[in-house]
Amino acid sequence: MDLQAVRGWLLQFEAIFFDFDGVIGDSELTKAEIWKRLFNEYGISEPGDTWYQAHIGRTRMDHCVDMVDTFHLSVAPAVIADQQKAMEFAAFHDEFVPPIEPMVQLVKRLYEDNVTLGVASSQHRAIVERQLEHMGIRHCFRDVVSCEDDCPTQGKPNPRIYQLAAERLNVDPHKCAGIEDTESGHVAVADAGMFCIGFENPNSGRQNFPRADLVLGFPDVQALNPLLGIYRALSSVGGDY
Questions:
Q1: Are the C-beta atoms of 164 and 149 separated by less than 8 Å?
Q2: What is the pLDDT of residues 37-75, one digit of tens each?
């Protein structure tokens, strides 16, 4: 992989949008454990954590509709969604998710290079805001778009959340990039017309990125960070880059 070229791509976009769960915060294992507990409460024999990992990247309501349909439950999806939301809020109120350090460092370096950054997450705003504040990077993002905005029933892979994120920052989505760790999320980025970057996070389960323009793993992101630092150092003294 030509990381120098990747660095150049990142610096030319009008804006770069990050998913939160599985890209900035390593929250997927905690969420999987919540679904495991929820499945146990409904007497479902299939492991809830395994089921969740196969559905990572979709909205809470999408999960609940599939859960009711798949296991023929006699409860409304909205009831399960409220339960899951309460369990998730309790979990994330009591703990902070581990930051994905290479991505956190990438956010900081891009911010210092004056790249406009945003978050487009299926997670709830209060959770995302609290976690970003704790990581010390909330100020790096011009905006946070969540499932509570103008797309509550249009979760990923519907591109609406990325389209809205671009609209709110008044940027052309075709001149932006989105970073996602799931197949459904990366489809949303691609369908929004953005340059699509797939991030391989082992805790997000086995994901495919057939429509990604670029796929990065942990080592790639770690290697990119010092290159961006070199860009800042050279540009500050008028050097070539």
A1: yes
A2: 999 999 999 988 888 877 776 777 888 999 999 999 999
